[in-house]
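Figure S4 source data
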Amino acid sequence: MASMGNASFLPEQDMLSTILGELKRTVREYTTATTESSCPAVRQMFESLTADTLKLQGELYSLMKQQNMYSAGSYALKVDVDKQYKQAQQSVQKARDLIGQKNAAMGPFAHQPNVASHAANVPPLS
């Protein structure tokens, strides 16, 4: 960090807000990588990285909130959250139904794995 004596380049709140924003972005990237990975070991690695980053983001948010450096947005009404949740559940169920229909329609032509499941070639991070 560039500093001149005791004066830092950016105020502490601005630096922490930037870091918090980067942690949020990183979680989104890790989540995308998790959903797109086909190798179980890679998927596990991104799941672990996501969890660790979420924990760090939560700790930084709590610290900033305690120091009055972060003001949370307005609260959402429970009815609105419940509505969004129900819509998400319906979307998931529709996707599952569609996948089931397509797989059933393919019958003997449905894709079968051509290789057996293999053990991870790197140990999971713990």
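Figure S5 source data
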Amino acid sequence: MITIYEERRTGAMAETVKHDHASLEKCLEVIRKMDGFLCSQISIQHMDKLIMIGGGSHQFIVTVETNTAIHSLLSLQEEEEDLVELTVGGQACEFPQHYIVSIEQVESALLQLLTDTITELHWEIIEK
């Protein structure tokens, strides 16, 4: 079962919209609506995984928590020194460039995480 928690902001206030019994297609629909302002954070609960996606428009950050590790999706960019400002959950944050991914990488990650399809992605893994 897939559950999506979509944050929608109105100024400083946030509302969480829950989508029960969601599909991969619904997840992608919600992510494509992320604009980095009114919606800059969603969480997807699937079995023992919590998938958190922040940002919007054309820059995202993806983190996956399991019982044993935290996985961060890595960009295809070689630059690790540059910092990129990204809004997540209504807060402007700076992230190293190597964590900033495209919508296509987000879609590939969800395909892998929700359907066990093998995709060519790189993850940083921190064991708990």
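Residues 42 and 66 are 17 Å apart (CA to CA). The longest strand covers residues 2-10.
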